[in-house]
Design a protein that fits this description.
By secondary structure, the chain is of the alpha/beta class. It folds into two domains: 3-191, Aldolase class I (TIM Barrel, Alpha-Beta Barrel); 197-367, Endonuclease - Pi-scei, Chain A, domain 1 (Beta Complex). It contains seven helices and 22 strands. The strands form four sheets. Strands 9, 10, 11, 12, 13, 14, 15, 16, 17 and 20 form a ten-stranded antiparallel beta sheet that branches. It has an eight-stranded parallel beta sheet with strand order 1-8-7-6-5-4-3-2. Mean pLDDT is 88; it is low at 64-69 and 360-370.
Length: 374
């Protein structure tokens, strides 16, 4: 999952505070700093990356004067930065190694540090010639997150898209506050997963009795045509519409999806699923619109109640899918044209939107395995 850290340079706290506060409001909760740790921690629940003892992530290779790793020994194994990273790792510390890429030798040192550190921050004076491609390829099998230091949206976009995979994250060192929100929007767009939805033909609709039903209340407002991917089978999930429509019975609740019974799967970030019964306040789920575009939403509350249930069966490309939903007029699937379709009006032959997953799942993760679900 792509991420962004913030570093507000300079010694004027009021200006630095404004940058960091904007970053926190934009979802960036990792701050690189060397002089205002106590002030920064007062701004919110942040992770501090610094060379100061007690930092959440210890930074090696860059000090408060902004000096990069400029002097490199002929024998890279004798690098003081490399020794410092190894020492901190032996102390069970999280470590970020910082390297300013000036020569081929700096690139070689960065590759060595990347095999030891948790994070590798790369800075280049001429962004266009940073050998990101070589380092991304050379460290792809290592357990390290590669971070590019950038100044604005354009540099962030280049870094995050290099070699298709891009860096794992960026360290934003902005000159203007407007860059912060723009980069945050870029990260959100990249993190957004797309699901290829297709219509399925309803083949059965019937009441089945009482069960424990789950309502998922999120910290986000959903729009018309937007809901969650839910179902009884991991091989295919139904797009269950949010309660964003007014009804003669209840007011709209655009933050809620009345998702189904406790056993059902719901799609979560990273193409993973969870059982509805597992969701708790603070968890992440995906909201998906009728085009298959997704957004990450935070679960605010999960409400489980006994309610009458209805079995919905549908077929697409020879695959039979089933799910159970509360038998109520306010519960809706999404029709082929993107409009909400109440289960109270659902009938055989109707088209509803589903997502077919060719992979089986083990503990919510997609795997290559044959599993029969019925």
């Amino acid at each position: 999952m792509k991420f962004a850290w913030i570093m507000a340079e300079g010694n004027v706290w009021d200006k630095k505070k404004q940058f960091i506060t904007t970053a926190l409001e934009s979802g960036m909760d990792h701050v690189v700093d060397f002089s205002d740790a106590d002030n920064i921690r007062r701004l919110g629940n942040v992770k501090l990356i610094s060379d100061i003892d007690g930092s959440d992530v210890m930074l090696v290779g860059r000090n408060s004067e902004g000096d990069g790793t400029l002097i490199i020994p002929d024998d890279l194994s004798e690098s003081k930065d490399l020794a410092a990273v190894k020492r901190l790792k032996r102390m069970d510390k999280k470590v970020a190694a910082y390297v300013e890429i000036l020569t081929k030798k700096h690139q070689e040192l960065a590759a060595l540090l990347g095999k030891e550190a948790d994070y590798l921050i790369l800075m280049g004076r001429d962004w266009k010639v940073i050998p990101l491609e070589n380092l991304i390829a050379g460290l792809q099998d290592e357990d390290v997150k590669i971070i590019a230091a950038v100044a604005d949206y354009d540099e962030a976009k280049v870094a995050l898209e290099t070699m298709e995979h891009g860096t794992d994250g960026i360290l934003l060192c902005p000159h203007e506050i407007s860059h912060i929100k723009k980069v945050s929007e870029l990260i959100d767009k990249i993190k957004s997963e797309s699901y290829q939805l297709k219509p399925a033909t309803v083949t059965k609709v019937e009441p089945v009795g009482i069960g424990d039903r789950v309502c998922v209340d999120t910290c986000s407002m959903m729009q018309l045509g937007e809901g969650m991917l839910v179902g009884s089978y991991s091989q295919g999930l139904f797009l269950v519409h949010s309660e964003s429509m007014e009804s003669e019975y209840v007011a709209s609740r655009p933050f809620r999806v009345n998702a189904g019974p406790v056993h059902a799967y719901v799609m979560t970030p990273g193409n993973k699923t969870k059982y509805l019964s597992e969701l708790e306040t603070g968890d992440e789920v995906l909201t998906v619109d009728q085009e298959g575009n997704s957004k990450v939403a935070i679960v605010g509350r999960v409400k489980i109640e006994k309610r009458p249930l209805m079995l919905v069966e549908a077929e697409s490309d020879g695959v039979i899918l089933r799910t159970l939903l509360q038998n109520a007029e306010t519960i809706r699937l999404v029709a082929e044209d993107g409009t909400p379709l109440s289960v109270a009006e659902l009938k055989v032959g109707d088209k509803v939107m589903i997502y077919l997953d060719p992979k089986a799942r083990h503990f919510g993760m997609a795997i290559e395995e044959t599993i029969i679900e019925k």
